[in-house]
């Protein structure tokens, strides 16, 4: 039997519902408190058909299982999700068909990763690309929890060498580096081509090599004295502006 330590923890009603909707066969164990009995019912039925364990537990026990007090009363333990390598010369349909695809270059905070995935799914993106930068956050309990099901709603890919991948995407996909200054406003980007929106590390931004590999630079014009936004907030604003 797979050890609990080898499983991802999906916490909260939205995150749990998303993993059951997309890949119920990967859910190995399931726990909930009495207050979540109604939401848990369909998931229990699905696991009963798969002959997998599920149990109603006390809140203190669920916090121990979840590894956090922020579990939302319901937790699914699932096999880790595989993230395939991106073939930029033959981009998958999820990138070609969507107006915008976020590409994350060294975003290290799992909460930012989850928040960007949540916004991307909300605004109709179909995929998310992670860079091979060693600072890049991967799929984790915190990322799944913050994404509120967003990570499960998106096709996920990894680009080991992001500058090479970005150059290879052209001309079918427009690559746009999100920079704090010096770029064009979102409205200036062409509307007839899918956009790979490249977002950089929280502290250092995008590397010069990544920026140089992009066809355009895009900047949100500030209207007040604060110079910049948290990367997850900037991502949401840019995705909305480009997808509209």
TrEMBL record:
One Pfam match = SpoU_sub_bind
**Keyword terms of this UniProt record:** Methyltransferase, Transferase
Domain (RNA 2-O ribose methyltransferase substrate binding): give its ranges: 9-84
Which GO terms fall under biological process for this protein? Answer: methylation; RNA processing
Keyword Methyltransferase among record annotations: yes
Could you name the domain of life of the organism this protein comes from?
Answer: Bacteria
For this UniProt entry, what's an example GO CC term?
cytosol
Q: Which GO terms describe its molecular function?
A: RNA binding; RNA methyltransferase activity
Per its record, how is this protein called by name?
RNA methyltransferase
Question: What is the organism of origin for this protein?
Answer: Neoroseomonas oryzicola
């Amino acid at each position: 039997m797979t050890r609990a330590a080898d499983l991802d923890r999906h916490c909260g009603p939205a995150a749990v519902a998303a993993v059951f909707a997309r890949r119920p066969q990967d859910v190995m164990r399931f726990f909930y408190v009495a207050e979540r009995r109604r939401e848990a019912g369909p998931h229990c039925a699905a696991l009963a058909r798969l002959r997998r364990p599920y149990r109603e537990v006390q809140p203190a026990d669920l916090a121990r299982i979840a590894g956090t007090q922020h579990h939302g009363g319901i937790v699914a333990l699932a096999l880790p999700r595989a993230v395939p390598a991106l073939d930029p010369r033959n981009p998958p349909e999820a990138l070609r068909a969507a107006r915008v695809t976020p590409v994350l270059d060294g975003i290290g905070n799992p909460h930012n990763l989850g928040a960007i995935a949540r916004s991307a799914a909300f605004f109709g993106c179909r995929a998310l690309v992670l860079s091979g930068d060693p600072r890049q956050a991967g799929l984790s309990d915190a990322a799944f929890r913050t994404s509120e099901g967003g990570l499960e709603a998106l096709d996920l890919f990894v680009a080991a060498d992001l500058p090479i991948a970005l150059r290879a995407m052209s001309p079918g996909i427009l690559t746009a580096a999100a920079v704090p200054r010096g770029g064009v406003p979102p409205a200036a980007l062409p509307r007839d081509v899918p956009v790979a929106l490249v977002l950089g590390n929280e502290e250092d931004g995008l590397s010069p090599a990544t920026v140089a590999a992009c066809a355009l630079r895009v900047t949100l014009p500030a209207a007040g004295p604060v110079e910049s936004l948290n990367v997850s907030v900037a991502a949401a604003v840019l995705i909305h502006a480009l997808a509209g």
